[in-house]
TrEMBL record:
It comes from the Bacteria. Keywords: Membrane, Transmembrane, Transmembrane helix. The chain crosses the membrane at residues 6-33. It comes from Bacillus thuringiensis serovar toumanoffi. This is Uncharacterized protein.
């Protein structure tokens, strides 16, 4: 039973890695990362704008 679980795990990991490679190759993931980065930057800026002593 342990060998079957190991084989299934390896297959799933290979499929995930293959999917990531296809995503990067087709240009699907790069805009998502850019959008996430912009959102994180805006969130951090808003947090520091709310602190009265920030920027002094």
């Amino acid at each position: 039973m342990g060998e079957q679980k190991g084989a299934i795990l390896i297959i799933v990991v290979c499929l995930v890695i293959f999917g990531l490679c296809v995503g990067f190759a087709t240009g699907v993931i790069q805009p998502l990362l850019s959008q996430i980065g912009t959102g994180m930057s805006n969130m951090v800026s808003n947090v520091f704008k709310a602190i009265p002593t920030a920027g002094k």
